[in-house]
Amino acid sequence: MVPSGTEAASQPLVDIRNLQKVYKLISGREINALNGLDLTIKKGETFGIVGPNGSGKTTTMKILLGLIYPTSGEAYLFGREPGDNEVQRRVGYLPEAPYFYEFLTGRELLHYYGSLCGVSKDIIAKRTDDLLKMVDLYDRGADMMIRFYSRGMRQRIGIAQTMINDPELLILDEPTNGLDPIGTVQVRQFILEQKKQGRTIILCSHLLSEVEAVADSVAILHRGNLLATGPVAQIVPESKQWQLVVTDLTRDAIGTLKKEGINLDIHGDVITYLSEDMDDVYKVLGRMRDAGGKLVEITRPQPTLEEQFLKAVGEDDLSRTIAKLQR
Amino acid sequence: MTDNTGIKCKICGDNIATGEETKCETCNESVHVKCLQEKGCPDVVSRPAPIPCAAVTESSFHAFTLSIRNVFLVANNTIVGVTRGVVLNVMMVLAMMMIIASTSTTLVEKGAREMLMDTGLASISVLGAMIAILTGFTLIPNEIENRTIYPIVSKPVRRWQFVLGKFFGAAGINGITTGILSILLMVVYAIKFKEFDSRLVMAVIMLYFMQVVLSSLIIFFSTFMSWIGTIIVSMVVWALGNYSYFIKELTEGDGVTGATKYLIMFVQKALPNFQSMDLRYAIVNEHVVKFSPHDIGLAFVNGSIFLIIALVLASIIFSYREL
């Protein structure tokens, strides 16, 4: 049954239900790469998947692309199963540390991939030029064998090939891998541009700041478990705390303030005070000024995705250790 | 007022009144009849409806032509890759040198024609098989090891299309090498004896067919074996296949009996009869063995059966393989 326009719009583009992947080693040991993963990704969303090595990020992507098969659970893209030809035609994929045919030139590679996607010759020719220009390989590299490409150039041609079929869904695994700072910024701009054009993007990266800068939603994976998922604003909540930074307070003054129950954080000359109440911050600031302190700044420090990630992973590790000890 | 059963509905969570209760067939728990009809059991994971793509209108004929197109795109890329590599070019130079050198061994006038044909066709047979093995064993494993397969199978390319593409690529490479070596042999023969022997054409066609069958087996082995295993097994199969009649004769003699006899018979039947595809003996010793179309037909059928089985199995194995 083909859904109506509104049904299709409200339906998640990627729907992962209770996905489990168990690898069986020759020794007979089993490794749980994914443990009941549930995820939904909406159309037009930029979704970041973050997690340390071995957390199940690449396994998830490989299942979505039909490269490997789940042990149990289901995954749907565009309402179809992974590996379906119609799905593949609508997906662009950049593997981690991509290798391409060394004997082809950049232009030949894009032609080949475009042809495999069933794109017509005329469109391939035009799109190839546009994409080579987009990734800055048109003048240097288009007709050079990939064998002679630098790591950064390989990553660029990799990004170009994801777009050759004008996909609705982009799956990018570590897209800034091997790129210099300028290249990294260009990739970020590329992702933002694709996002603006309404493409759905799944971004898998170790660089959490990278994900935070472009993603609408994130999923934090650890040891095959989903620790947290939701909009970035929800995962990284806006700070309610104010931070007061003061210098030049004497030891006596610090001692007096502490006796009054004011909790100070001291790093050398720099004294920090945290409070959710702005009035309280001004009151403490007045006391500090009276004691000879100089105001450096009053800020509202924003927690980063990295902090939330480390917190979530740390808590998970801790609970596992406790569970192990209890056993 | 209706009596309450005291049981909660699994779907809505409310108490179920008497007469409103039913058991869900999926989870075997109590639910409201109405809830089950309207909302369904939550344990039944419904598959989402496909989201249509405006750009794709694919008829089955279109899908078929795209499949064929993909097979030949993969085949073409395989040929480009191997012909731009070093292995094939080095082996081709060696093979050409061997054929040219074989002319110097035919200085004796008596039997010179047979000698040139024998050494020339032997060069094509042996070196063609070596080229097929040494270029073929890497075709699929290298794609997996170098991860060049990821961007391919994440595109609308079925695994069987990839396997068939690799096979046709290998067949194309065999065609190029056998073609060049055969033309060289025929030119050398024509220059030396000022004539053209049409039997040579049939002989090289059958040698080419032998290499194609061998390539299908190499592709099959490489879908589940390591590269070293693929090389060893392919060479053993090729060697035993080239002694098929000799192996058969072993079972007909008095020396071999019992289980050994059946084992040898099994090996002979389980491997393609490459010897029947090698027409050298029939050409060179025409007075002993006849150049029979019937035998050529049987050899073709035998090879085709092995070729089809190898490719079907390779496609199935590769479809289930995790990449």
How would you portray this structure in words?
The complex is a heterodimer of chains A (327) and B (323). By secondary structure, chain A is an alpha/beta fold. Chain A has 12 helices and 13 strands. In chain A, the strands form 3 sheets. Chain A has a 6-stranded mixed sheet with strand order 5-6-7-3-8-9, with helices on both faces. In chain A, strands 11-12-10-13 form a 4-stranded antiparallel sheet, with helices on one face. A 3-stranded antiparallel sheet of chain A has the order 2-1-4. The two termini of chain A are 50 Å apart. The N terminus of chain A is likely disordered. Chain B is mainly alpha-helical. Chain B folds into 2 domains: 42 residues; 266 residues, no CATH class. In chain B, the strands form 2 sheets. Chain B has a two-stranded antiparallel ribbon. Chain B has a two-stranded antiparallel ribbon with strand order 3-4. Chain B is elongated, with a radius of gyration of 30 Å. The model of chain B has no long low-confidence stretch (mean pLDDT 84). The interface between A and B is large, with 48 and 36 residues.
What's the structural blueprint in terms of helices and strands?
The complex is a heterodimer of chains A (327) and B (323).
Chain A: H1 5-10, E1 14-24, E2 30-41, E3 46-50, H2 57-64, E4 72-77, H3 85-89, E5 91-94, H4 106-116, H5 121-134, H6 151-162, E6 169-173, H7 181-196, E7 200-204, H8 208-214, E8 217-222, E9 225-231, H9 232-235, E10 242-247, H10 251-259, E11 265-267, E12 270-275, H11 278-290, E13 294-299, H12 305-326
Parallel strand pairs in A: 3-7, 3-8, 5-6, 6-7
Antiparallel strand pairs in A: 1-2, 1-4, 8-9, 10-12, 10-13, 11-12
Helix pairs in contact in A: 4-5
Chain B: E1 4-8, E2 15-17, E3 21-23, E4 30-32, H1 33-38, H2 60-83, H3 86-104, H4 112-136, H5 141-145, H6 149-153, H7 159-193, H8 199-222, H9 227-241, H10 244-252, H11 258-270, H12 280-284, H13 293-320
Antiparallel strand pairs in B: 1-2, 3-4
Helix pairs in contact in B: 2-7, 3-4, 3-7, 4-7, 4-8, 4-9, 7-8, 7-13, 8-9, 8-13, 10-11
